[in-house]
Task: structure prediction
Amino acid sequence: MSMFLDTAKIQVKAGKGGDGMVAFRREKYVPNGGPWGGDGGRGGDVIFVVDEGLRTLMDFRYNRHFKAQSGEKGMTKGMHGRGAEDLIVRVPQGTTVRDAETGKVITDLIEHGQRFIVAHGGRGGRGNIRFATPKNPAPEISENGEPGQERELLLELKVLADVGLVGFPSVGKSTLLSVITSAKPKIGAYHFTTIVPNLGMVRTQSGESFAVADLPGLIEGASQGIGLGTQFLRHIERTRVILHVIDMSASEGRDPYEDYLAINKELESYNLRLMERPQIIVANKMDMPDSAENLEEFKKKLAANYDEFEELPQIFPISSLTKQGLATLLDATAELLDKTPEFLLYEESDMEDEAYYGFDEEAPAFEISRDDDATWVLSGDKLEKLFTMTNFDRDESIMKFSRQLRGMGVDEALRARGAKDGDLVRIGKFEFEFVD
Result:
């Protein structure tokens, strides 16, 4: 089994806030001690942190659920519960985080040490010391902690590389990478020797350096899933320059120019924006018979398909085996990188709107529906959050919740929908009778 994994689906759940406490001060020489219950502690966040030592999402194959701890409950003597520690989850550089439900990009993590809160912990519930008023100096009311944020996420790793090597299988991409860098990719005389992206650092004779990614070979029809498909092309999206490696010896009986067109068609089918990246054509295996003649024919066909005023891609004849032409190729690549800007990876429409952790006045506070058993069902984020944070073990808390529902207009809305005295009303799994 390959130890490289570049996609994963996980579930994260932030910690619940601690419950507030109902307590009273009862000491021999302190008359009228009053309420003394403290607030609950904050629940822990789930935080992604970029670790440059990681190269794969393999850790998420076996561990798909991440849950932060809940806050400590409030205590007597007005003491707050302790807030929970945040759950730190380490991810490799180049990890894109998407919401599994909407498909929107939440964040793109590319810098070592970069942190992002993917799930916010709930705040602690208030203790009864918070509810004391001149009219009610001894309240028996407390809140439960706020539930932590819970969501399903899609993780997608796109390796950080300046240059990407693309081409048909067995055109010499892995050999080229092994010669120009210290990487040790698997090399063999058969197709799809490379089944995972390989990464290496290049240093030119002039002192320039850049990262190169060798991607598994494409074949015609890859965008329809033929061969290894285009599953690894996501790793080329971060690159700024593409080295298009072509077997100019035609050792497998294919026409080099047809190879060039076929690979570009697959790149275009996968993501049209890949064609914005400048390409350098690497005419490999020039030490083989017929390579020189094939290169001349290739140049003629290439020129015939470009307009007079269009700039032709640069072509560099090389031999990875004899190291012929490599220095010139690397210098030209470094020069092209210097004048090529970063490409926008995601459009604004791909990004998730900035989260707002407060009450949205435009959103309805509640919704009313009717179940098959004629029970009225109340739902809505604000109402359900209010319900979750109500301590139903205390009569005063229940009465407070009832007043809150009335203040939100739930009674009037149910009456307008035709609810009658004695009808059942459900919030989640909790049921109660409607009293007109």
Observations:
- The first strand starts at residue 7 and ends at 13.
- The first helix runs from residue 59 to 62.
- The CA atoms of residues 5 and 59 lie 9 Å apart.
